[in-house]
Amino acid sequence: MAKKFYVTTPIYYANGLPHIGHAYASFIADVYARYKRLLGYEVKFSTGLDENSQKIVQKAQELWKDTMVFLDEIADGSLKIWKTLDISYTDFIRTTEARHAAFVQKILQKIYDKGEDIYQGEYSGLYCVGCEAFKNERDLVNGVCPDHLTKPEVIKEKNWFFKLSKYQGFLEKWFAEHPTFVESASRFNEVKAFVERGVEDFSISRENNTFGIPLPFDSSQITYVWFDALLNYITVCQEEGEKFWDKDTYILHVMAKDIVKFHATYWPAMLESAGYRLPDQEYVTGYLTVDGQKMSKSLGNIVDPVQVAQDYDRDAEVFYLLYDAPIGADGDFSWDRFKGTYESVLIGAWGNLVNRVVSLCSKYGITEGNISWKEDFFSDFLLDYLEEKYLNSGNLQVYLQDRYRLVQSANEYITKAEPWKKYKDEATKQEAIDDLKFLLYIVKNLALLTAPVLINGFAKIQRMFGNEVLSKIDSSKNMMNDDFQKAFAMKEFTVDLKPEIIYQRKEKTE
Ligand SMILES: [Zn+2]
Angle of helix 168-177 relative to helix 267-274, nearest 10 degrees? Predict the structure, then answer.
């Protein structure tokens, strides 16, 4: 039986179309989904939209639109964006779907029936509409929400509560026993500090909301958006009988730092209460600024991920985001660094290597890649890859930096070996041929090592090589076969070369 892997993006808030920050989280999840598929896992990859919100009703009203019409437009637009960016999700969920309401109500009833985790109480507190969350005085900076810079409203109403306080000890024990539950370590420390201060019960319903999922045991109240939203991760598992939420699946959530508190405290307690297993890991991304400034409509600096992919290359976008900053840290989308990385790494180093090797081999009629006469200097890298060393620690940046160093040494090798000179002299001709066979092998394996990230580049190399084993590999599909590892293991292989330019310099037309 194949190993199973389930990765999720957050369900994005349906008040607008995804921007580069959302694309960043989706790219990370996509890289993991593709990587695990190539290693033979059966992969589920879900994404979607968080739609049950009073704020969305307001937003639709401002636009003179029916709420569902507005939401359908956002859903259509989001799907188009993920398709353009080749996000290889298998499931897309909208929380206004009937299947979701049914599952949320089932879980609420299950927890309610336990008799001790859900209780009724009166709530009076500070509420930030922007966060859709109650706030403590200590969460505020100068009396305003630090994320929205607005003063929270005082709300007083009868609500149902989830007894999070009961799970204080459970959470502390879980964190101690799972030292990499949240990546990066600094994000995990923030979560632990939050829990150490003492978790408080939270209200799971709203009295005055009109849009959302009614509580099954009190239809006068609507389920609090966070209680409903988190459950999407299991709603999408219902059709397959929860086989991707069983003990044999590796479960990974990817999210931005503003929602880690919900994912790392509310969610584990809810799962424990409802009798479900917890996820294995949560990767938390920082915020992205643009050229050092906060992205905002008024500054006009919002980066459209589709525009970047169209003007440059989708690969350039993914590569830059993952290469420029480690997961967990706040990142910055710098146009200069983006263009610099694209030109120096993807075109200048990787593209140049591929183009030189493929065009020389093609010119000299070399149809074979071969490493058998040299030591296999890839074996360590290959081992790391197959053991999932870097990728399981969330360290995509180091992973890509190491690949880049390999590209550089291969470029140094070809520059020093000068096969184009050696080939002209009968005495050194065979040496040139051997060097090029060796370099062809290197290009093949480097292509495989970056296949989950540089998918356009990999597709071109597949076409250029025309090798049957290579051309079968498809990281967007659960293949359930070992073509990927077979391709890695090929120490001698034949190619039918058709040179193409792998990445091209773009002059952006204004
Ligand atoms: Zn807020």
Answer: 110
DSSP letter for 288, please.
E
- Give residue 215 CA to ligand 1 midpoint distance, Å: 25
Give how many domains the chain has, as a whole number: 2
The domain of 75 spans 4-285
- 453 has pLDDT over 90: yes
Q: Would you call 100 a catalytic residue per the annotation? A: no
Same domain, 227 and 352: no
Residues 211 and 339 in one domain: no
Same domain membership, residue 370 and residue 255: no
Which residues have CB under 8 Å from 420's CB, separation 6+? 360, 432
Q: Are the C-beta atoms of residues 42 and 5 closer than 8 Å to each other? A: yes
pLDDT in tens, 122-156: 878 888 888 878 888 888 888 899 888 889 998 88
User: Same domain for 241 and 345?
Assistant: no
* Whether residue 41 sits in one domain with residue 190: yes
Does residue 173 have an active-site annotation?
A: no
- CA distances (Å), origin 396, targets 88, 326, 459, 501: 18, 7, 21, 26
237 a catalytic residue = no
- Domain with residue 449: its CATH number is 1.10.730.10
Compute and round to an integer the Cα radius of gyration of the chain: 26
Q: Say how many Å lie between the CA of residue 125 and the centre of ligand 1.
A: 14
The model's pTM is: 0.93
- Nearest CA-CA partner of 319 in 452, 444, 220: 452
| 22 catalytic per annotation | yes
- Cα 492 to its chain centre, rounded Å, is 35
